[in-house]
Amino acid sequence: MKVLVKTMVALGLIMLLGGMPLMLTASRCSAADGSADYSQGADAGKASAKTGSDGWIVGGFCCGIFGIAGAALIAPTVPQDQIEGKSADYVKGFSDSYKSVRSKKNIGKAVTGCIVAIPVSLLISAMGSSN
Questions:
Q1: Same structural domain for residues 10 and 64?
Q2: Distance from first CA to last CA of the chain, Å, rounded?
Q3: What is the DSSP letter of 45?
Q4: In this structure, are 59 and 15 located in the same domain?
């Protein structure tokens, strides 16, 4: 009797685990209908975020660590002209990827400005102390 129970439990687990990939595939297929717009928007958002202003270099140069904090805390503004008339999934994908990529780029630019400010400050300080 114990062998029969163990066999039934084993067969139940095998059927459950064997059917799991089929259930996951079915849920992905139903969700994939709207995700094409999302992925297109995400790709466009990444491309758009890579171009643009490098004003955070000045923020990092002039404000140091406060410029870096500003770049980290201030969320980038999504360009509205690039998402007008698009589907909600496209807008969501574009906005998510644009903000993520642009925020990282802004922080990197602010850090660059801060790093450049250090030797410039030291040079100015050395020139002032030599007089």
A1: no
A2: 99
A3: H
A4: no
Tokens for 75, please give them: 């969320």
Amino acid code (one letter) for 39: S
The model's pLDDT over 101-131, given as tens digits with 9 standing for 90+, comes to: 999 999 999 999 999 999 999 999 988 876 6
| Domain boundaries, position 69 | 38-129
Same domain, 51 and 23: no
Looking at residue 85, the DSSP 8-state letter turns out to be: T
Task: Give the pair of three-digit tokens for residue 15.
Answer: 């059927």
The model's pTM: 0.67
Is the domain of 74 the same as that of 23? Answer: no
pLDDT, one tens digit per residue, over 41-66 is: 999 999 999 887 789 999 999 999 99
Residue 97 Cα distances to 69, 102, 103, angstroms? 21, 8, 10
Decide: 27 and 78 in contact? Cβ < 8 Å: no
> Considering its fold, how many domains does the chain have in total?
2
